[in-house]
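user: can you give me the structure for this one chain? tokens are fine.
assistant: on it. calling the predictor now.
[tool input]
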Amino acid sequence: MKTLGILGGLGPESTIEYYRRILGKYAEHRSGAAPSIIINSIDVNRGLRMLGEGQLEQLTDYLVESLQPLERAGADFALISANTPHIVFDQVQRRSNLPLISIVETTCARAKALGLKNLALLGTRFTMQASFYAQVFSREGLSVIVPNQSEQNYIHRIYIEELLKGVVLPETREGLTEAIIRLKTRDGSDGIILGGTELSLMFREPSVAEIPVLDTTEIHVEAAVTELLRD
């Protein structure tokens, strides 16, 4: 049996969701069985502080060091259970002995399979303002659209102040839905990337206002379970 390593805590609520979904998805294929999983939960506030101060080298060091206990414990491969740290995914993968499953690459593959072309990206300010999603998607001929500045400020604020703490409010769902509709009508988006794993706590349906939603948590989980089941 393969062992999956999860670098979690980024934040805690999404790590719990990853674990729950992996168990459920794995059981769909092997009834009554549970996969071998090792979790190293690290400090989300430390990571956010590094991002806020532009300390990408320090963030890379922190993630690489945090993957090492998973390797020593016997993980065969790993994932980082968050979107924002994928800002330094390539640097981390080059320095880690563990093969890593990219949330961005797996989401891009899903968007391409669905025939989507212009996808709006929601997430933390760091994710929306970075280029790591656009770079991967552009290689496949897909475009990534980001909200305007005021929308970014709103999304980042509720992400940090609410979703990271597991707070899911109806009025926040309504506000995000309105932003999604604007991204469709104003910017021509034909799909939405929930580019923050906590956003899947807010939107659990396959579409919002008839706009397809790519739940990056679910896509990442499916890729991990596929690897766990591989002989």
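assistant: here you go. The beta strands are 3-8, 36-41, 77-80, 100-101, 118-122, 143-145, 191-194, 207-208, 211-215. The domain at 3-102+219-229 is CATH 3.40.50.1860 (Rossmann fold).
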